[in-house]
Amino acid sequence: MTNLNQLPTDLPIPQDDGAADHLVGMHLPAISLATTTASRFNLGESTGRLVIYCYPMTGQPNVALPEGWDQIPGARGCTPQSCSFRDHYQELRALGAEVVGLSVQSTEYQQEMADRLHLPFPVLSDVDYRLQQALRLPTFFAAGMTLLKRVTLIANNGVIEAVHYPIFPSDSDPAWVMSYLKNNPV
Fold first, then answer.
1. H or E segment to which residue 34 belongs
2. Which residues, including other chains, have CB under 8 Å from residue 10's CB and lie 6 or more apart?
3. What b-and-e string marks burial along 56-65, b requiring 16 or more CB atoms within 10 Å of the CB?
4. CA–CA separation, 117 vs 119, rounded Å?
5. Quick one: which of 49, 13, 55, 28 has its CA closest to 173?
6. What is the pLDDT of residues 85-117, one digit of tens each?
7. Are 182 and 95 in contact (CB under 8 A)?
8. DSSP bridge partners of 152
9. What is the DSSP string of 120-155?
10. Does the N-terminal peptide bond of residue 169 adopt cis geometry, omega within 30 degrees of 0?
11. CA 142 to chain centroid
12. Helix-, strand-, coil-residue percentages of the chain, each rounded to 5
């Protein structure tokens, strides 16, 4: 069975296709999404710094990943990315940022992962693609599903000020975010 916590060494590296070039300067829309903390999160009402890491889908223990998943550039690594944000959460908070994860999976599906990984932050469900469509977030199609490409947004008072895309390897994402926050204080 696949070890979801470990990245294979031979993963294809995603290339910058320009699909996130338009995001800097956009306002987060007033869209309220369900979260793994049994609440709703309205992105348009966020204040201060908010880090939104978007990912395709998390695997589940003892459930096979979609056929060919490891051959899709940037698809594999959602669990290591979430664990890395968990492990650096206090540092990110100390830098003045709130953190949320985001995928198009249902809250019920995300809840298993959030509980298993002991995530200290909410994971938002964009199951209806409302945020994806409003921001034109990059997607790909796999195993009959339209999924988000891995992209991280840093917003300040509801305006996207920085974008990390493409992200590789996935667990390097928080280090990039922390470097950005340190070098660009509010």
1. strand 32-35
2. none
3. bbbbeeeeeb
4. 6
5. 55
6. 999 999 999 999 999 999 999 999 999 999 999
7. yes
8. 53, 164
9. SS-EEE-TT-HHHHHHT--EEEETTEEEE--EEEEE
10. yes
11. 17
12. 30, 25, 50
C-alpha closest to that of 171 among 53, 60, 72: 53
**H/E element holding 99?**
strand 97-103
The continuous run of DSSP H or E covering 162 comes out as strand 159-164
Q: Which two three-digit tokens encode residue 132?
A: 């994806």
CB-CB contact of 41 with 144 (8 Å): no
Which tens digit of pLDDT belongs to each residue from 43-89? 999 999 999 999 999 988 888 889 899 999 999 999 999 999 999 99
- State both tokens at 141: 């199609």
CA 94, 131, 70: angle at the middle one, nearest 5?
A: 80
| Structural contact between residues 131 and 31, judged by C-beta atoms closer than 8 angstroms | yes
Mark residue 165 as left, alpha or beta (left: phi above 0; alpha: psi -120 to 50; beta: remaining).
Answer: beta
Half-sphere exposure of 7 (CA within 13 A, CB side): 23
Q: Which helix (H) or strand (E) holds 182?
A: helix 173-183
Model pTM?
0.95
